[in-house]
Amino acid sequence: MRPGCRTEHQANMRQFAFSVWMLILPTVVSAVDHNADTVPGVRKVRDFIIYHDARFHSAFPSVVRTRKGELIVAFRRAPDRRIFGEQGTSHVDPNSYLVKVTSKDALRWDEDPTLVYAHPFGGSQDPCLLQLRDGTLLCTSYGWAFVDGAVVDDMKPPVFENRKGVVFLGGYVLRSRDGGETWDGPVYPPHIGPEINNNALGDPLPAYNRGALCEGRSGVLYWVVAASDAGPPGRKTSTHLLMSHDKGRTWEYSAPVAVDDSASFNEASIYETPKGDIVAFLRTAGLDDQACIARSTDGGTTFGPWERMGFQGHPLQAVRLPDNRVLLVYGYRHKPYGIRARILNPECSDYASAPEIIIRDDGASTDLGYPWAVVLDKKHVLVAYYFHTESRRQHIAGTILEIDSPGRAFPKK
Questions:
Q1: CA dist list (Å): 80 to 53, 127, 277, 325
Q2: How far apart are CA 305 and CA 383, in angstroms?
Q3: Using alpha carbons only, how large is the chain's radius of gyration in Å?
Q4: What is d(CA 55, CA 240) in angstroms, rounded to the nearest whole number?
Q5: C-alpha span between 138 and 317 (Å, rounded)
Q6: DSSP category for residue 404
Q7: In angstroms, rounded to a whole number, what is the distance separating the alpha carbons of residues 266 and 227?
Q8: N or C: more exposed end of the chain, with fewer CB within 10 A?
Q9: Burial of 8 from C-beta contacts in 10 A (0-12 / 13-18 / 19+)
Q10: Nearest 5°: CA angle at 135, between 130 and 62?
Q11: Chain centroid to CA 149: how far?
Q12: What is the pTM for the complete model shown?
């Protein structure tokens, strides 16, 4: 960090902490009966709405905190098709666009989102943000083309058809050098060998996935992507590591992460430990929704055998806390529906024994989850996710957690 930058950064942190506490102090007492408070050293401060508009189905957020202290939450927004008299809303939609809202204090957010990207050939999904150490923002996503169902049979096979006339386009990467005000791209990552599909244009499918990328200490970027590796297309997937040595402009294949003859691995987040291990947290199919983990001890050249983590939930995202422990957040699509988390040791090796934190358990259906956490200051973390209650359809929500140092517990009220 350049001389003077550290002072500015520390001032931003102090101001941010002050702003947060001025807003949340009146609500702390009423929030202490939440389940999160049963884990020593963890207290839920409050839940709140980041963005809601009854006309839209808003989902799949990610969040970063810029070097200037601004919070950016990006998410997928599409019309709630029930406003047109349709029976329901799908997770793929021709008018599914990537949008964002911002905040300076984590509680007051833009009322109207701004556009990040609208794909010219179809609807986009799951904007996944990564802020690099030089301040550059990357956003990965993927898209679906909506075509006359009669032409699908004439496309270069195989293609992944979500439903009649909805064909997968694969992934892409956007870049911003001005804090998310403008975006360059898209850059299309390479097709990887295990992927059997072509896209709707007849080209080999560009790599894709939903999940957090990681910038390693060496400056290498790590991205776990998915591949349909057996027919029928899209039914069984494996995960593989891509690496970039030029800040995401180009990508190269490194290694399989998790492959199995019957189980599927897909939406994945990756994390580098203080020791330098590369850890992938994996969503699964065919394993009773078990969360899984895979680890590389050689910088992503190879991964050891994948392992079950001993609990259900998906997808997962990890963030380093100020004391080097790791907050792992994940959605829970079993009754009671909601958002959960665990705090792991710095090397992420105690996942089987780490206590589970129930952040929310008041969801109305399985159509919720996809949490993403960011550190606010020395004690506070924002967890953003999409949620669905009996009174409010899918919206972007947030929870602030207060996390104390190990071995300490907050006094009981």
A1: 10, 19, 42, 39
A2: 30
A3: 20
A4: 37
A5: 17
A6: P
A7: 8
A8: C
A9: middle
A10: 25
A11: 31
A12: 0.92
- CA geometry: angle 318, 412, 329, nearest 5 deg: 10
Task: Label residue 36 left, alpha or beta by phi (over 0 means left) and psi (-120 to 50 means alpha).
Answer: alpha
Question: Phi, psi at residue 17, to the nearest 5°?
Answer: -60, -40
User: Are the C-beta atoms of 192 and 209 separated by less than 8 Å?
Assistant: no
Q: Is the pLDDT of residue 5 over 50?
A: no
Cβ atoms of 139 and 112 closer than 8 Å: no
d(CA 233, CA 328): 31
Nearest to 222 by CA among 287, 147, 277: 277
Q: For residue range 152-172, list pLDDT tens digits in order.
A: 999 999 999 999 999 999 999
**pLDDT, tens only, 26-54:** 443 333 345 677 789 999 999 999 999 99
Hey, which bits of 252-394 come out as E strands?
252-258, 264-272, 278-285, 290-296, 307-312, 314-320, 326-332, 338-344, 356-360, 369-375, 380-387
Lowest-confidence range among 12-21, 62-71, 219-228, 316-325?
12-21
Residue-wise pLDDT for 97-144, tens only, equals 999 999 999 999 999 999 999 999 999 999 999 999 999 999 999 999
Q: Name every residue whose Cβ is closer than 8 Å to that of residue 10 and which is 6 or more positions away in sequence.
A: none
Looking at residue 407, what is its pLDDT?
57
CB atoms within 10 A of CB 95: 13
